[in-house]
Amino acid sequence: MSGFIKNKEIYLSGKKGRVIGRSANKWKVKIGSRVTWMDPLTDDWYYSFKKPVNRWSNTKAVILNKNDLSAFQLKKERIGNWKGAATARTITVDLPVWQVAGTSTVYVGHLGKYVVVQLRNNALVPLKRCPRKNQKIYIGKGRLTPKYFKCLKIAAKPPPRERKRKRAKPLYPVPTREELSLFE
Predict the structure, then answer these.
(1) CATH 3.40.1000: does it fit domain 1-48?
(2) Do 32 and 21 touch, CB atoms closer than 8 A?
(3) What is the pLDDT of residues 123-174, one digit of tens each?
(4) Domain ranges of the chain
(5) pTM to 2 decimal places
(6) Which of 2, 18, 71, 177 is 20 to 30 A from 168, alpha carbon to alpha carbon?
């Protein structure tokens, strides 16, 4: 988990604490003199920011690796004669996003610091405000060129659900079983 930083100040359930360690998917947090474990996906927590931040109204569905909850990166693997992408061990999780006011820096859940950009005139341009509802944005790290900018893998929105079908009125009267029988 790249967002894990030792001695980082966070608020866990409204109480200020420091991250002192981690074990796989859990973080060890010291709140006062008490030490507790927290799950960055399910527990109510947020970073302690020095600068003012804006929390985005919607969460982002980010694709993570199951074993360590790090951001998914496309890798090839080989099992016997089969070769392909190692995607079977991933999960999709809705993560909160905080944007530092007046900058393009965002913090995506427990993953840490990223940059939010938009495509304008075939160039990546930093987005210094919260995006509109259907605005096309990219969240990632690296230089703002297509070759070096590495995007965070965001899951696509599910397709709209089909309306439940209603039973239509028959076009003609349906014959009964007795009317259809050949043997009388």
Answers:
(1) no
(2) no
(3) 899 999 888 888 888 999 999 988 899 999 888 877 788 888 888 888 988 8
(4) 1-48, 51-156
(5) 0.74
(6) 177
